[in-house]
Amino acid sequence: MKAKFTPALIVVDMQYDFVHGSLAVPDASAIIQPVNSLLACPFAIKIASKDFHPPDHISFARTHNKPVFSKINIHPPRYHEGRALEQVLWPVHCVANTPGADFVEGLSHQAINTTVLKGQDPGIEMYSAFRDPWHLAETALPAALQRHGVTDVFIVGLAGDYCVMSTALDAVDFGYKTWVVKDAVKSVHDGEEWDEMERKGIRLVDSQEVKKLLSY
Ligand SMILES: [Zn+2]
What we know:
Its EC number is 3.5.1.19. With about 220 residues, the chain is an alpha/beta fold.
């Protein structure tokens, strides 16, 4: 008997600021076409995440009057337990309800069934599309996957070494068979994220292999 296979596509942060704007990931526009080709495939559900920050977000260098790409330690919000985490301070990006937070032009966004927002709390950075790093709150993603009886998640988008990797690691934690589609991902600094994901049991594939898997 064939094992149950209910695949979801998760399109991470394919937004203007990460492709052309203030925090553009190198060569990011090259993945619009492969992401679109996957959005045309018969996934049980296609979900996009959007980074969606208030103007004074904790991850912005401007908020702390510090140089961009410098690092600080951040702590959980008041009354919560949790370890300090190192935070890279980014240029202002993906401010809610501004053009920088829109889906990048050319993305087949009409094929997306559900969009989940992240990073809306001014005091909490959220790389993963599932939840914050201290596991205090979840986005709408875990419930959407559960509602559709998803077994396998296929992750694409930006950036490979931050939000894609964090989303993939959480997908494993939530019990999903997790795939990252390498030719539909770009990283800020291409490097050790691939090995780290493989070590955690994440399967690295290319979009042609995904299309074969979906033509079951
Ligand atoms: Zn952000």
